[in-house]
């Protein structure tokens, strides 16, 4: 048995002809801040939106124990990633003042699962399989979780190493269980990304909605429990109307996005 846990550029995925996925490129600078500046990030993480930062994703300043990660990502305009990184650095400039750059990272992030995640006795997990959620770009939890689910299924199927599991058996356990557990979560986040990151008007709406306590609760619960949690149907209907209102208002106040010359459709 082989479990391909070798990340977005997976050699194992290529070896089994697992098929391609669309991907984002993410860029991150790790910055060590002076102590008094780091205090600001003790209790919060920052998310920045706008077409200066990314035409289809968000920029971030995330605290990482003793430093911050400052970054951004994009699918459709990968060649401009450094320009977007400069923009997030400029937007957060006051808070990052006096910081020392300690590491620069740039890496692909899969946008959806590969067409084939099991071939023969090879199974893919994590980024190799394409398990990063849209909208938040979260992949660490899902990489660990898929590794565990694949391993547990295989140990059980192999009767503790006595028999070799077949492709169908792996598909009917690990892949089926994964899709049952997470398909809806991925789909909802996919829709949210398509709705709220598509232009500056939608991003204004997103920012306005984030002030709503119900939105905050549903978002944090979903993030915590890794499943889309829902409140009462009445609150959901209220939210629907609020969203429409926010999108209309957002489109009225936002400046139009800068045009992108060539939409990047590269796949990995
Ligand atoms: C800039 C950036 C910021 C991110 N921020 C977040 C975040 O805040 N939260 C979050 O949840 N996710 C985040 N992600 C996504 C997250 O990092 C990935 O989804 C996650 O690391 C995937 O884990 P993985 O084990 O599948 O792959 P990886 O972490 O890529 O690990 C793959 C491992 O395989 C090894 N490997 C590859 N090829 C070979 C080979 N041929 N032989 C031997 N070893 C090999 C690599 O060296 C690596 O150690 C971010 C990604 C990027 C690029």
UniProtKB/TrEMBL annotation:
GO terms for molecular function: geranylgeranyl diphosphate reductase activity. Its EC number is 1.3.1.83. InterPro entries: FAD/NAD-bd_sf, Geranylgeranyl_reductase, GGR_cat. It is an enzyme of class 1 (oxidoreductase). Residues 37-102 form the Digeranylgeranylglycerophospholipid reductase catalytic domain. Keywords: Chlorophyll biosynthesis, NADP, Oxidoreductase, Photosynthesis. Pathway: Cofactor biosynthesis; tocopherol biosynthesis; Porphyrin-containing compound metabolism. GO terms for biological process: chlorophyll biosynthetic process; photosynthesis. Pfam families: GGR_cat (PF22578). It catalyses: phytyl diphosphate + 3 NADP(+) = geranylgeranyl diphosphate + 3 NADPH + 3 H(+). Belongs to the geranylgeranyl reductase family. ChlP subfamily. Catalyzes the reduction of geranylgeranyl diphosphate to phytyl diphosphate, providing phytol for both tocopherol and chlorophyll synthesis. This is Geranylgeranyl diphosphate reductase, chloroplastic. It comes from Rhodosorus marinus.
